[in-house]
Design a protein that fits this description.
With 317 residues, the chain is of the alpha+beta class. It has 10 helices and 8 strands. The strands form 2 sheets. A 5-stranded antiparallel β-sheet has the order 3-4-2-1-6. The relative contact order is 0.11.
């Protein structure tokens, strides 16, 4: 005997259809909120439930909660040693900034959120100096940690607020240590360098991060575009910046006034040091050959102690 199975289709009740559409919309809002904010599934779901599935209100609530938790964690972790971290360097036209941001471990220094914050801090310093009126010479502005925290970003929050968010995200203490900013008149150019250098070429006006950094102001009497021989002046200046990171000079020096050190390994005067790129020349010879004049430079090494810190320690001892 043959049995024929007949499939019955029961029309969905209007209420069930509405519930299905609601569930689909809820999942879509949840996925979009997670993608936009990066917060956990549970937190995004809770935010939507509390605010009637309104994505804008849910996002605002999430960020407020993250900010509060970040400040709470920052307060708890405050005082813990931060000797690791990164140096950020950014040059945009006639303004340059170099920032040191510290954390507890090298593991966090490699964290993407921490690195983005260092870039944010570098860009914030450049924008901060844009409001400073330049004079005929190079303008230099140094910022300590407290001054850095007060800089307000485009979103209306301070760097200190953003730092608290980073602390809440990475789970360990982090500090804004220091920054140096240069603003140059038309006849002076700026360049910067970080080490380790990026694996691929990054435009100079994009924030770069590394364990070491240098910022340099220079004057070029000619460039390759003028028909002169040799390398482009900006490229040579960038290599001198690399030299400053590697050889740690303490001052520029002046030809005819500063004598070379008896031992070349003890040389701290920039112009008398053997050029890192080609040790058969001194930096002074390279500058003269390319008609470059160094106006000023600054070198940061992540975690290094400032001279004032060292003096304070000696005074205590």
């Amino acid at each position: 005997m043959l049995f024929r199975c007949t499939q019955r289709f029961v029309p969905l009740h209007p209420l069930g259809l509405a519930l299905r559409h609601f569930a689909t919309a809820e999942k879509s809002a949840l996925a979009a909120l997670r993608k936009k904010t990066g917060y956990t599934f549970a937190n995004c779901k809770k935010a939507l439930e509390l605010h009637g599935n309104d994505p804008a209100k849910a996002e605002q609530w999430l960020r407020e909660q993250a900010q509060a938790m970040g400040w709470s964690k920052a307060t708890k972790l405050e005082g813990r040693s931060t000797v690791q971290g990164l140096i950020g360097v950014l040059v945009q036209r006639n303004v340059g900034a170099m920032v040191e941001v510290n954390c507890e471990t090298d593991f966090v220094a490699r964290n993407a959120s921490f690195q983005r914050f260092v870039q944010t801090a570098s860009a914030a310093c450049v924008r901060h100096l844009a409001h400073v009126e330049p004079d005929s010479n190079l303008t230099k502005v140094g910022l300590n940690g407290e001054a850095l925290k007060q800089i307000v970003l485009d979103d209306g929050k301070s760097l200190g607020d953003h730092l608290a968010l980073v602390i809440g995200t990475v789970g360990e203490n982090a500090t804004l240590n220091r920054a140096i900013c240069f603003k140059a008149p038309e006849n002076i150019q700026l360049t910067g360098y970080v080490h380790p250098a990026p694996n691929e070429e990054i435009p100079l006006d994009v924030p770069q991060v590394g364990k070491y950094g240098s910022l340099m102001a220079f004057r070029a009497e000619q460039s390759s575009a003028d028909g002169g021989e040799g390398e482009d002046a900006a490229l040579v200046a960038r290599k001198v910046c690399q030299h400053i990171v590697g050889m740690k000079p303490e001052r520029i020096g002046e030809q005819g006034k500063d004598e070379p050190a008896a031992d070349k390994d003890d040389e701290t005067c920039l112009i008398h040091q053997e050029y890192l790129v080609d040790p058969s020349f001194t930096v002074g010879e390279v500058l003269e050959a390319n008609r470059l004049q160094i106006i000023d430079f600054q070198r940061f090494e992540c975690g290094e102690k400032s001279k004032s810190d060292e003096q304070n320690e000696r005074a205590v001892d």
